[in-house]
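Justification of computing resources. Each target in the renewal requires a structure prediction run like the one illustrated here; the chain below, 208 residues long, is used simply to show the kind of job we budget for.
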Amino acid sequence: MTFGKRQLLIAAMVAALGTAVYLNWQFSGVEPVSVNDAGQSVSVSKQLGQTTYVNTEVSGAKSEKSEVSKSESSKAEKVKETVKEVSSVLTKEQQEYFSCERAKRMQSQDKAQESLYDIINSDSSSETAKKDAVKIAEKLANIIKAESDIEAEIKTKGFNECLVCINNNSCTVIVSKGNLNEATAVTVKDIVNRQSGIEFEKITVTEV
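Resulting structure tokens:
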């Protein structure tokens, strides 16, 4: 009897592993949509990074692939050059600002989650109210993760510190002063768009 149960358990594990491998293969073929500069000039007085973008499809022709590759390489070099001069130390005021604002954000999100869990666990809540609360709680959890992932990636682009706040399908990104310009603002917006799906025009990038 014990041997039979063990066989069933192994069979179940093999089936689960096979499903996981298949799903991984399926999703590994999905490529993120690339966003390329349309070439329009941008006034310095406008919001940083406010540039027109279009989605592009690369045909099978080798010449087109080569041109796209050169364009992307050139753009990457430009961005790389803009992040060379970065202050290695935050000022005391900057440290206090980011610490305080991050604590406020966390406190607000904790309160929202607590309220949602109260509704979900309350016997007096209707089934509709509980289902709505579950959906909102899942959305909030996804926002919290997206904010953390976006901040981590932005810091790899040369910024010492940053704070990301997503709210109502819009996003505000605050970065440490000294390295923000048109090119780096576009880079930041591209990261937010790719990680959260928020449109470029609904992303604001500022520095402190």
